Amino acid sequence: MITVHLKYEIDADKLEDFEEYGRRWVGLVNRFGGTHHGYFLPSEGDSDIAYALFSFPSLAAYEQYRADSMRDPECQAAFELARTTRCIKRYERRFLRPLDGLSQP
User: Fold this and answer.
1) Percent of the chain residues topping a pLDDT of 90
2) What mean pLDDT value characterizes the chain?
3) Integer CA distances (angstroms), 56 to 13, 45, 46, 52, 61, in order
4) Long-range contacts for 25-32 (Cβ within 8 Å, ≥24 apart)?
5) d(CA 22, CA 34)
6) Radius of gyration of the chain from Cα atoms?
7) What pTM, to 2 d.p., does this model score?
8) Quick one: fold of 2-96?
9) Residue 40, SS3?
10) CA 87 to CA 8: how far, in whole Å?
11) Per the record, a Pfam family (predicted)?
């Protein structure tokens, strides 16, 4: 299993746009065979940092999702929402391997 950790620098004045972007991607990742663990939005502390976590059974499955998402109209609409609203200033992507007592290396 591979878990993707995304750290977003967002425009705090466009939080509603970012929330809509996140709602779309939760469903899309799940539709493409992943498990979305949710978006984590600013509350106390930094007002412009948000996170997301989602997992795929393997790096190959994640790479297939990435390729398929480039051709999917709903994914393209979500990308376009972020581009037109400019709710995301930048993001960082990390790949993690969960250690939960159940996963094998």
Assistant:
1) 86
2) 93
3) 32, 30, 29, 14, 6
4) 25/52, 25/78, 28/69, 28/72, 28/74, 28/75, 28/78, 29/54, 29/65, 32/65, 32/68, 32/69
5) 15
6) 14
7) 0.86
8) Alpha-Beta Plaits (3.30.70)
9) strand
10) 10
11) NIPSNAP
